[in-house]
Specification:
Elements lengths: L4 E2 L5 E2 L3 E3 L4 E6 L5 E3 L8 E4 L6 E8 L9 E4 H11 L13 E4 L8 E7 L9 E4 L10 E6 L1
């Protein structure tokens, strides 16, 4: 179920949006192949980060599924499909040294939790970014906008 989520101050985001005011984002994924806010059924399709307030951003991903692994990858929007395509050669695991990746968790098997901290200083408000799961076949259903303010 997707809902509107009221955030800090007067900010409202569209359905599926999360404003990460405290520089952290806790997500879960399961066999429905969606990113959701941890311990809720609210699908996350947009993340907004205040770069000035969050020079380092942390994403925690808990895999609550039973059948398949998931990860969380952030790239420029223009690079996302190519990064995902390249990862297909290694069972959906992108190369650690891929310069196009701005942040990436390890692959979380069922019942595992993974975390990544990444530097937002390389990101700009003018650029479009995307987050996604790179495991085989997950890219088109597990993705969203990563917006830097």
């Amino acid at each position: 179920m997707m809902k509107k989520i009221a955030m800090t101050g007067a900010m409202m985001l569209a359905a599926g949006g999360v404003f990460a005011a405290d520089c952290t984002l806790a997500l879960q994924a399961d066999d429905m192949m969606q990113f959701q806010k941890l311990d809720t059924a609210e699908q996350v399709t947009e993340v907004v980060v205040d770069k000035a307030a969050c020079p380092v951003f942390t994403v925690t991903l808990q895999n609550k599924g039973m059948a398949m692994p998931h990860n969380f990858v952030v790239t420029k929007d223009a690079d996302a499909e190519a990064v995902n395509g390249d990862a297909a050669a290694t069972m959906g695991v992108p190369a650690d040294d891929d310069a196009r990746i701005l942040g990436m968790t390890a692959m979380a098997n069922p019942s595992e939790t993974v975390e990544v901290k990444f530097d937002t200083s390389k990101m700009t408000a003018e650029e479009a970014y995307k987050f996604f799961c790179s495991y085989l076949g997950h890219f088109y259903s597990m993705q969203g906008k990563f917006i830097v303010k």
